Amino acid sequence: MDTFTSFIGELRVKSNQERKLHHDKIINWIDEYPMKDGKRGLALTMILPTKGCKYAMAKHGGCSMCTLPMDNPLQPTETLIKSLPQRCVDIFNAKGGKEKFVAVKFYTSGSFLDRWELPIEVRDNILRTFAELVDEITIETRCEFVTRKQLTSIIDIIPPSKLIVAIGQETTDDEINKRSINKGHTLNQFKRAVNILRTLGIQTKGYVLLKPIFLSELASVEDAIRTIETMKSVQIQHVSINPAYIGKMTLMDFMFKYREYQPPWLWSVLIVTKKAKEILGSSVRLISDPVAAGSERGPSNCKECNPIFKEALKEFSATQDVGILNKLACDCYEIYKSTIYNEILSNGMGIDSIRY
Amino acid sequence: MDYKNKEMTTGEIIYEAGLTRRLKIGDLPLTPWLLNTSGKLMIGDKLISMVVMSERGPINLPKIDDIVLSNDYLEVIPELSVLLPRLVPNIKKLDASIKEENSIYLDELKKSTLPNVFGVVYNQKFSHDYQFLFELIELQPSFIVIRHSQISNSSPRQFIPWIIDLRSKIPPNIGIYLSGEIPIGFFALAFGLGIDIIDDYAAYSNAFRGNVFEDGFVKQSSRSTSELIKLNLAEINRDFLGSCLSIDDNLLWSRIHRDMHVFSNVASFVYLLGRTFNSIINYDLYPSNNTNNLIFTGDESLYHPDVTKYRKRVISRYVLPPVKKLIVLLPCSAKKPYAESKSHRMYRKAIRQGAGKHFPQVSVWSLTSPLGVVPQELETIYPVKYYDIPVTGHWSEEETQITSQMLIDMIEQLPLDIKILVHVSEGYRGMIEAANINNRITINWIGNEDKSDDALIKLTNSVEKIITEFDTPGKVDKEKIRENKEIIQAIVKYNHGSKCFLSLDTIKFMGRPPRPIQIQKDGQHFLTWDSLYGKVNLGLNACLDIIESSLNWVICDTDDIKGTSLFAIGIVNASETISPGDEVIIYNSTKQLMLAVGTALISGISMNQVNYGIAVKIKKKNKW
Lengths: 356, 624
Prior knowledge:
The complex is a heterodimer. Chain A has helices spanning 4-18, 54-57, 78-95, 97-100, 120-133, 148-154, 174-181, 187-199, 217-233, 251-257, 266-280, 306-319, 323-326, 332-345, and strands spanning 27-34, 40-47, 103-107, 136-141, 163-170, 203-210, 238-243, 285-287. Chain A is an alpha/beta fold. Chain A has an 8-stranded mixed sheet with strand order 1-2-3-4-5-6-7-8. In chain A, helix 3 runs parallel beside helix 5 and helix 9 runs parallel beside helix 11. The relative contact order of chain A is 0.11. Chain B contains 16 helices and 31 strands. In chain B, the strands form 9 sheets. In chain B, strands 7-6-8-9-10-11 form a 6-stranded mixed sheet, covered by helices on one side. Chain B is globular and about 90 Å long. The chains are: A alpha/beta, B alpha/beta. The interface between A and B is large, with 48 and 49 residues.
């Protein structure tokens, strides 16, 4: 295997074949949401069944850890796409409506601002409708779709302060980005996008990936902390720490199966979260609510403290109260410290999985 | 920078036995090391710093929480560091980027002022050819960090050739640190395979899985994590200490043989080492002159390196004295040397009765497991005098096969007119029949009562019958003197090679056991013979007798040896068949002058590879 990217590309082709072709559901869930004033509210998250990420569909296969397009239909019909705004409103109302939710989040397993996934009128329809219903709307996009022209037309529909644009920068270290993640964003592109959003008064949110492939546990902790420092310096308003989990049919999955990769410990998540709060202060809202926490394929500690850590991180994300995190303790911290060496000495590759 | 001129950064071999060594690195304790991994990487109370060699120079790893990865430094890399490559491959160009990362690593190492004790990392996953390893070795690191998957779960079929090949490429004075999980029960094996440094990670990883190390076993336990960690660490330290002591007492393989009865993968390693990978092990690296007792309890002892080494040496170096015409194969005895046992005294008497004046023409070989065949002249040497086995009268298929093969190898070298008589019980039938190629052996089955009058009469009669065919022997020494000379000749051949022969015609024996016997020739000291422990130390005159034929030669770069030690740095070339403990003859660089005789402390292979430390203890110097 000379290049991993051609390999990711092959994996993507295979995973496309396995996609749930006829699936057109809007997957949704409710979680707690920290509001600007420090209070906690509820947010409804909806995943729109678009074609998925264009970048992931490219020959190089996209990001090494991304499995999201697996859940999307490969060829959604025009009717399906056009029906999305109404169906979203129906779900919103069915789940409790504007009395219940202060915010909504729209994910597309790609970029909300990519017209290839969501035509302008559908996109505008959704934003226009929900601008009336909630205080904040979060959408996700890759940097390249953040253009002044595109965003200027959006803020005609929705007040900029209500919109949060989340960008999966993952790391601000271009070398790590290029070497381990294959994200295709550079720090400069990220800065440019954040700059556009800031000058238009739109809130920005940065995603930080904790532990991409090829990095040891400690190197990934260090990289996440550095990334958060950089995000603070470009004046971002929201940060979400996303510890890696093993997505199906990804390079990460492949390495995991060959015991070349282990998802991060919840201890690392905790260390990064505490450090991040210290760096970011109270003005930046910090979310650290790991996907698949405590599971075999997600960030985890020992059996005893997995549920406690998971709950505490969720609670912290809703309240921003770092006191919750300071209370966390478990004997498995000693084990965590020992594994740190094991991974450093092998550069994170070829580790003996502690879980077997 | 001239690496040769910097302070000694590699280790000094203090002890060598096969792939196992005790190295002195800096002012640290002798290897093996058990590193502590909790929050700090420690050897004893010393922190091992982690330093990343990036293209921006050495980078301090951050202190995170109470995880301290490095002594703080600004420009100088701290003493006792592991220097890590950055080694993050590029997803787009895997092979090319790894090459690039490796060359950055090497460049940075070469540019930096390296401390006196440091380790480098060699990750084979990232480097398929050995060129990179050789370049790392050029830097003379104290140790090299190697990665492999869990030794407890890995396939011995892959692990054994891999580690033996690697160990042969890494000079013996550079330690190997096998990082990762090595649970209890595998320490002795790891040291036996040439690994010098391990860590206590297994205590933690097993606690994580709910495993407890207890009393030499690994068990599932419902104890709390902190309790498991505590117990596992205690047991790991105990096993480590025990393994180190075993090295000092030359009982490492006994310990491995004990561990194999608890850990099935240790057993796989032992059997594969003995059966399948026997040919890639260099038995010349194992010491030849120990004095420790060995306890052999099972078939695995057939593959004990000291036993295998004995068999190989006897087959290649034992020569039947020319006067001998008949070999009597006898069972071994529990008492060592066999000749002093009740049964062997009785056999001797019976043989003497049958042989009469032909007695000097009879040689006795004992059949034993796990050693195989023991000619009577070698009954006092290590390991023949020093082992114990359970006596059952039964031979396993494996014992039968190995002993009969050794017998075949030895009989094949005998002149065709040598007769062989076997006087053993039915239990030996399989082995004798397998070895009786061309029907050279006259077989005397003696039932189960080998010391019964009937059996002994049968022995006398058989000897008598065979011996009548022989001519009367010419003039021979008195029995005791003749036999002593035969023993000395055989031991010298065993030590120095089959072609060595001392002229002992005019020697005089001085003193009596238990003290070593001084042997004089023409009024001068010739050699010392410890008759109880099977050791012969040659004087310089005796060395002259074997100077053309000894395999144990060391060539050094001086014409005049001073002091009592020959250092490795002074050695130009040494015979690679020299084992630690062998008597060696030291020559000047042209091999024209014999300078001294001494005892090798390390193997000839190591003498040729290292530049530090004492290689030979000088016993006698030639005065000009």
